[in-house]
Amino acid sequence: MANESRPCPCDIGDRFDYGGRGQEVQVGHIKAYVCKPPASTHKAVIVIHDIFGWQLPNTRYIADMLTTNGYIAICPDFFVGQEAWKPSNDWASFNDWVKTRDAGKIDKEVDVVLKYLKDQCGAEKVGVIGFCWGGAAVQHLMLKNPHLKTGVSLYGVISRFEDKHTLLHPTFFIFGEKDDIIPLEQVTLLEQKLKQNCKVDYEVKIYPGQTHGFVHRKREDINPQDKPYIEEGRKDMINWLNKYL
């Protein structure tokens, strides 16, 4: 998952009591979790959270993992103070809840974050990764934001942007074979549309036997048979960023 000089801290977390190695900062009108590598770098990655919000330890663990691979990582609150979804919430109300949190309307926040990364962190090349809701947001940004260099969409909800495929930047799509939320037919259609319309480098990869959320799963929830695919997904994500940032 990392080169020899920056080994991945695979023992540091991946669980709900994981506190994170970075710090919370105010970035314009939003809060964000920021983690920086020991050595100076001009490369940064924006991490877009899933429905469980910017404070989810699993997501911060991935941000810290990016840092151990030499990137400045920032996970902003793209819900802008609105409450994140809780596992205890009534799923019958989910559709109404998510309507007030549009993955295609984060451009103002992204602009603020990009300015912060440039002015405060010296970032010159910025990529983006996102999970589920955030994965859909990555696809949105890859379609329209000229200032980002590359993106990785992890089990991004395809139906949100299923009719748009003219990506501006190299994009890697990660899906689980057994994802109940994103049927394989949708993934196949996405591949077909990208092949017809996309002029930049892209890859769509399906990981055998994996369910929704597998790449940033808590350590205690990882079954031995899934572990190789989870590690492969994380490694593939890092390799893609290394290639294009």
From TrEMBL:
Gene3D superfamilies xref list: alpha/beta hydrolase
Compartment(s) where it occurs, according to its Swiss-Prot or TrEMBL record: Cytoplasm, Cytosol
Domain Dienelactone hydrolase, first and last residues per copy: 30-245
Statement: the UniProt record of this protein carries the keyword Nucleotide-binding: no
Keyword hit for Oxidoreductase: no
Keywords: Cytoplasm
GO cellular component terms, A-Z: cytosol
An MF annotation (GO) of this entry: hydrolase activity
Main location group: cytoplasm
Protein family according to the UniProt entry: Belongs to the dienelactone hydrolase family.
Name of protein: Carboxymethylenebutenolidase homolog
Source species: Helopsaltes ochotensis (Middendorff's grasshopper-warbler)
Gene: Cmbl_1
